[in-house]
Amino acid sequence: MAMAVASPVTATACRKILLTHFAFRKLRQPPTTRRLVSSVQPRHHCYRAAATASSAGAVEQEVQLIRSPELVAQEYADLSLADKFSEELGHVRIRQHVNPLRSTFMVPAEVPDWNEVYKDPTLPLMVDIGCGSGRFLMWLAKRNPSSKNYLGLEIRRKLAERANYWANDLALNNVHFVFANVTVSFKQLVSAYPGPLMLVSILCPDPHFKKKYHKRRVVQKPLVESIVDILAPGGQVFIQSDVLELAIDMRDQFDAKSNKLIHVDKIDPNLSCDSEGWLISNPMGIRTEREIHAEFEGARIYRRMYKKCVQLSMPSAADQE
């Protein structure tokens, strides 16, 4: 009696079996778990040392910690925003990457009535470009209720709307958020403000890693020129990123304005820098949400702060071009 011989399993068949197996395992995960796991990938492409631990339990515990909302909630505990939401807005789904060159984002933002959004529209203004959820500005606004105004510019409309809802709920009358593409709207928005522009922050913007997408980066020559022109004498620019290549790009853009801007370590000995010119510590007193997560993952934050001085020197080479 002839015995049946099993046909050999091809490589293609093996791949199909493995793909089916892993797809089934992924589907077995609760939807929230799948979403949270995918949302914690470090954008600086630097895996945590804990991910290489031999103990599977230790790695799982680390993943649980990194996706925990306590990372941000503890830093911003006094805002008590965890349970505050707008029934009108509902759940705000955050889109991490936005193409600012899309035609839908090229419409200039409407200049608000400053008398309506601020109790005193003549106070010194801080503008945070790419303000995200707005927690960073609300924390600052709560601590400086009568001495400064704060303006957050955000290209994701839902985030700006939710931030204004939160600010109103906290009864903050010195902070406001505008849905705007700063590439298009920064100059017309900020130049219309009645008071002096004293601080502009650009904190951990989207790095747009691929070279062909570098044109999407927020820090471009026209924006830098607008910031420097509108900034009041003595005003400051604070930039930071957890991506070194992007930090260098931003630094080079502002260093090119050396006839009007000077790095603060040259005029304030309390703000020390490392050997490469990066600020050693955060001068703002509070970390942004991205900064919290990046440092937890083991990333370094690269920071620069400039101050506008009156006629430091002759026009720079960049200005003469």
From TrEMBL:
Family matches, as InterPro entries: SAM-dependent_MTases_sf, tRNA_(Gua-N-7)_MeTrfase_Trmb
Top-rank taxon: Eukaryota
Keywords: Methyltransferase, S-adenosyl-L-methionine, Transferase, tRNA processing
One Gene Ontology cellular component annotation held by this UniProt entry: tRNA methyltransferase complex
Catalytic activity annotation: guanosine(46) in tRNA + S-adenosyl-L-methionine = N(7)-methylguanosine(46) in tRNA + S-adenosyl-L-homocysteine
Keyword Chloroplast set for record: no
TM helices/strands, residue ranges: none
Short name of any one Pfam family annotated for the protein: Methyltransf_4
Single Gene Ontology MF annotation: tRNA (guanine(46)-N7)-methyltransferase activity
Entry EC no(s): 2.1.1.33
Protein name in the entry: tRNA (guanine(46)-N(7))-methyltransferase
Organism: Coffea arabica (Arabian coffee)
